[in-house]
Write a structure and sequence with these properties.
Elements: H1 8-24, H2 27-32, E1 50-54, E2 57-60, H3 61-76, H4 83-91, H5 93-113, H6 120-133, H7 139-149, H8 153-173, H9 182-191, E3 197-198, E4 201-210, H10 217-232, H11 237-246, E5 254-259, H12 266-272, E6 284-286, E7 289-299, E8 302-303, H13 306-335, E9 339-341, H14 363-368, H15 374-381
Antiparallel strand pairs: 1-2, 1-9, 3-8, 4-5, 4-7, 6-7
Helix pairs in contact: 1-8, 1-13, 3-5, 5-8, 6-8, 9-13, 10-11
């Protein structure tokens, strides 16, 4: 059996975070998204109505509406969504949110059955880790970040408690199902060779006879030809360019470094990738003027050795197997759960709602956006 590149604690943590993607999609992110007033006023007698019971865990109408309002605000304030996508998300929000909460309650109920408890010390350590990862150094910055997220510290603690609880359940119940040995990893490496191909790279330098030099096209071409003839005759590139650079006719010799084909365009790419090492190109018309390229060195396309990508393959395959096992695990919990429903109309049919399986948000992905101080957000918005 291959020893795992990551330790058990890291693997357990990964299970929880993948669960967030598998079960919730953006549910935990929604919990942390900026809070808004409850979208619909609920009659006082309805506030404590239980809308969902899963074994010993319950969801009240009040809590559902509160979480729905946060999700609505997240969708409305997401600049990456166009109006059509925003409307689509709002249309299925009730079912999506209830599906997420249902599976959350399944895990919480299982934690109770396993006598798994997350104490205050664990929660505070998790919050301290968030502070360090996001460079939140003062209480004022933390308060600003929480305010921007529409959260109180108590709400953040509760979110972290749920996440830690999930980690522990998944570590105990699902971790043992994930078995990967070296043969599995080598099979993946063998079956997906192109994923590990390093494309050909070329180390290039260039000089540009500038359009802005004041010379007409014929004069610029004459200068470019003189530089090309000089370097072909053995004159060092910098020496051949120097007198023209002093007059502002050309740039100096620019070291472009190692480039792959897709990093160049059009005629520059064609010229650069037809040169032999040490050779100079004919002048090429491109942005800014006439370019003369020099190929210093090339590295042929090659495959990364298995030893270099073994850990990457392990993480990739582990994530795939976690998604598969988590889906099976949640189906098992649901099949043996006691469930009672008194649902809001928009949530009816939630158990048939599809689960988003492809997202694998890290803890930073989940927490970064709502917990960034407002001054950082303002700086980014103005750039």
């Amino acid at each position: 059996m291959l020893s795992k590149p990551t330790n058990d604690r890291a693997a357990t943590r990964g299970l929880s975070l993948t669960l967030t993607g598998l079960l919730a999609g953006t549910a935990l992110a929604g919990l942390l998204a900026a809070a808004a007033p409850i979208a619909a006023q609920v009659a006082p007698q309805e506030v404590n109505r239980i809308v969902l019971r899963v074994n010993d865990q319950i969801l009240t109408l009040h809590d559902y509406e509160k979480r729905k309002a946060r999700q609505i605000n997240r969708i409305l304030s997401d600049p990456s969504l166009d109006p059509e996508a925003r409307q689509e998300q709002l249309a299925v929000l009730g079912k999506a949110l209830m599906r997420n909460i249902f599976e959350e309650l399944l895990v919480r109920s299982r934690a109770s059955q396993l006598s798994i408890v997350v104490d205050d010390v664990q929660v505070e350590r998790a919050i301290d880790r968030i502070r360090r990862e996001q460079n939140i150094q003062t209480e004022q910055q933390m308060a600003q970040a929480l305010a921007g997220a529409g959260l109180t510290m108590d709400e953040l603690r509760e979110i972290m408690r749920r996440d830690l609880l999930t980690q522990q359940v998944m570590g105990r119940e699902v971790q043992e199902r994930i078995q990967l040995d070296e043969d599995d990893l080598r099979a993946y490496y063998r079956d997906h060779p192109e994923e590990f191909r390093i494309p050909e790279r070329r180390w290039l330098k260039e000089v540009i006879v500038l359009d802005s030099s004041g010379l007409d096209e014929g004069q610029r071409r004459s200068v470019a030809a003189e530089i090309k003839n000089a370097v072909d005759g053995g004159v060092p590139f910098e020496e051949a360019v120097a007198p023209y650079q002093e007059q502002g006719i050309t740039t100096g010799v620019v070291d472009l470094g190692w480039l792959q084909a897709e990093e160049l365009s059009g005629a520059l790419r064609d010229a650069a990738f037809s040169l032999e090492p040490g050779a100079y190109s004919e002048p090429i018309e491109a942005r800014g003027g006439l370019h003369v390229l020099h190929l210093v060195e090339l590295q042929e396309s090659q495959f990364q050795p298995f030893s270099e990508v073994q850990e990457e393959i392990y993480r990739r395959e582990q994530a795939k197997r976690i998604r598969k096992e988590m889906s099976a695990y949640m189906a098992e919990l649901a099949a043996r759960a006691y469930v009672r429903e008194n649902l809001p109309p928009e949530a009816v049919g939630y158990r048939q709602f599809g689960v988003i399986e492809e997202q694998e948000p890290s803890e930073l992905d989940i927490l970064r956006a709502p917990l960034r101080p407002k001054d950082e957000e303002d700086d980014e918005g103005g750039s």
